[in-house]
Amino acid sequence: MLEHLPEVTKTWSFKDKETRGTQMNVPVAPALREWISGTAIPDLARSWQPDIPAAWALEQAVRNISTAFGHALSWTVGALINLVNTSPDLSPDAPRLNQHTAWHIRHGVDTEQALTLLTSGVTSRRIAHLLGHDAARLRHRSADLRRWTAQHHIDGWAQQYGASDYEIQDLLDYVRTPSDPINRLLDDRATTTPLTRLVPGTPDGPVDVARPSERHPTIRIDRDQHQVATVPADRHLDVLAMLESGLDLDHRLHDGQLVTTRRSR
Description:
It contains eleven helices and nine strands. By secondary structure, it is α+β, with helices and mostly antiparallel strands. The protein has two domains: 2-175, no CATH class; 181-262, no CATH class. The strands form three sheets. Strands 3-9-8-4 form a four-stranded antiparallel beta sheet. A three-stranded antiparallel beta sheet has the order 5-6-7, with no helix packed on it. The chain starts with 5 loop residues before the first helix and ends with a strand.
């Protein structure tokens, strides 16, 4: 059993009470499966110690996840996999162990795509697990993950994955394509923003840019009070900064893109 490994015994320990508590047996193998499956830490705490006060169970879950999964076990498994995969006794055609397994143990996810998200700036394990599962199911590789994630946009992240405000900000930072529109405008140069969800047949000309709201979390491009396009997720933060800069701006639609200039005085 995993809990009898010397690498684990000192880092996987639970008690029924905080003071003078009795040692409890929480099998590490099923706990590890729950952790990698993306189960939230409060839910893990309730599963591992259902009859223990919630705050004490949660504190122990966090500590044991950090010491056992985040360090001892992931490091040991990673070293073992490397020894096996590089063994001179293996023939060139022999199958190798999954080299990402140690990272799955450390981060608590079970797809390569989720690992990519978590090691690329996304801090929410929950959202990384959900997006990673969908990306793996649809066979999106890690190299394509940023573009695919951006396509869902803010409303897609909220509706499909239940993303919180914090998780949405996390994903906006992850998908962002820096464009530096404010400096271009300060130099009296036009800044161009690609658009998405453009209504077919929309002619060029002046448009209004509507800031995000609780009801409409994306930045909308409007004409005559009707939405004709949306600022894509990867440009959302830069366009929002431009709108909040205090500069007096003119916006036009040209060849399916938003062209913004400083208004002449």
